[in-house]
C-alpha cells in the first residue's frame, strides 16, 4: 500500500487535503474498513472525527479500535425519536469514544416563532439547512477529515460513494470506511462485536432520521423509502 500520509502535527491547506483524499480514495478502494480508518487516524489524529446519526454505532466502534477516544459527532436537531437520543447516551456511556453533540442555532420553539410551525412539512430543505447542514458545517470546522457510515447499497444516490473523497462543500476529507459493505456485513459486525444499535431498527425503520420526516417501511421497500416519504427529497444536504 503506497497511500500518502502526513504528520498530523501541522495543518495542511485545502489543496493538500484534496490531493490526500484523491490519492487515498484510489489506494484504499479495496482496503478493509479498519485499514481505511487507521489511515485516517494516522494522518489526521485529533483532527479526524466520526459523524453518527445513532442508527447504529458500527463506524464509531470501528474507529474507536484504531483511535480510542475518537470524537463522535451527533447532530441533535431537536426532532429526534427518544430511541435515538437513548442510543446516543448509551454510546457515550459504554464506548471508548467522545460524543460531541451539535445543536442548531435556534430551538424548535424559536424556529417555529420565526418561520411558523412545522417548517419540515412546508420547506424541508430550509428546515434541514437550519437544523442539520449549518450546524454540521460549524461543528466540523476544527477537523480536517470526517467519517460517515454511507454505503453504496443504500440507495442509487449513494452508489458511487468513494471510501475516501473530497468534501467540496466543507473543504474536508470525507471518509466512508464501510462504503463497500452490504447490510449483511453490517449485521455480521454488530453480532460479532455486540455493537449498540437503535431499537427502531427492529421496529420497521431501516433508516432513521428526524421523527416528523421518517416512517416505517413496508416489506420490499428501499431502506430509505421512509425518509421524507411522498416528497422528491431523498437527502438532507449533509452528503450532497
Ligand atoms: Fe427538519 Fe425533517 Fe430535515 Fe429534520 S429531517 S431537519 S425535521 S426537514
Written account of the structure:
This protein is α/β, with parallel strands linked by helices. Helix content is 36%, strand content 11%. The chain is built from eight helices and six strands; from the N terminus they run ααβαβαβαααβββα. The chain has a six-stranded mixed sheet with strand order 3-2-1-4-6-5, sandwiched between helices. α2 (33-44) packs across α3. The relative contact order is 0.17. The structure holds iron/sulfur cluster (SF4). Iron/sulfur cluster (SF4) binds at residues 77, 79, 120, 124, 127-128, 131-132, 209-210, 212-213, 236. It catalyses: [thioredoxin]-disulfide + sulfite + AMP + 2 H(+) = adenosine 5'-phosphosulfate + [thioredoxin]-dithiol.
What key attributes describe this structure?
240 residues, alpha/beta, 6-stranded mixed β-sheet, 8 helices, binds iron/sulfur cluster, phosphoadenylyl-sulfate reductase (thioredoxin) activity
Topology:
Layout: H1 14-27, H2 33-44, E1 48-51, H3 58-66, E2 70-75, H4 82-94, E3 97-102, H5 108-115, H6 119-122, H7 124-139, E4 145-147, E5 164-167, E6 172-175, H8 183-193
Parallel strand pairs: 1-2, 1-4, 2-3, 4-6
Antiparallel strand pairs: 5-6
Helix pairs in contact: 2-3
This protein binds iron/sulfur cluster (SF4).
Iron/sulfur cluster binds at residues 77, 79, 120, 124, 127-128, 131-132, 209-210, 212-213, 236.
Amino acid at each position: 500500500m503506497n497511500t500518502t500520509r502526513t504528520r498530523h502535527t501541522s495543518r495542511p491547506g485545502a489543496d493538500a487535503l484534496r490531493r490526500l483524499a484523491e490519492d487515498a480514495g484510489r489506494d484504499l478502494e479495496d482496503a478493509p474498513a479498519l485499514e481505511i480508518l487507521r489511515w485516517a487516524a494516522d494522518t489526521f489524529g485529533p483532527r479526524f472525527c466520526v459523524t453518527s446519526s445513532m442508527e447504529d454505532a458500527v463506524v464509531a466502534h470501528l474507529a474507536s479500535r484504531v483511535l480510542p477516544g475518537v470524537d463522535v459527532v451527533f447532530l441533535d436537531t431537536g426532532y429526534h425519536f427518544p430511541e435515538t437520543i437513548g442510543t446516543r447516551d448509551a454510546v457515550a456511556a459504554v464506548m471508548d469514544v467522545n460524543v460531541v453533540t451539535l445543536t442548531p442555532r435556534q430551538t424548535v420553539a424559536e424556529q417555529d416563532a420565526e418561520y411558523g410551525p412545522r417548517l419540515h412539512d412546508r420547506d424541508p430543505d430550509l428546515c434541514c439547512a437550519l437544523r442539520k447542514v449549518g450546524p454540521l458545517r460549524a461543528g466540523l470546522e476544527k477537523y480536517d477529515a470526517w467519517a460517515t457510515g454511507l454505503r453504496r447499497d443504500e440507495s442509487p444516490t449513494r452508489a458511487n460513494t468513494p471510501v475516501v473523497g473530497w468534501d467540496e462543500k466543507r473543504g474536508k476529507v470525507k471518509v466512508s470506511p464501510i462504503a463497500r459493505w452490504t447490510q449483511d456485513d453490517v449485521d455480521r459486525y454488530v453480532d460479532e462485536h455486540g455493537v449498540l444499535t437503535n431499537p427502531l431498527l427492529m421496529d420497521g425503520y431501516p433508516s432513521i432520521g428526524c421523527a416528523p420526516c421518517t416512517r416505517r417501511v413496508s416489506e420490499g421497500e428501499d431502506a430509505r423509502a421512509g425518509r421524507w416519504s411522498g416528497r422528491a427529497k431523498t437527502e438532507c444536504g449533509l452528503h450532497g
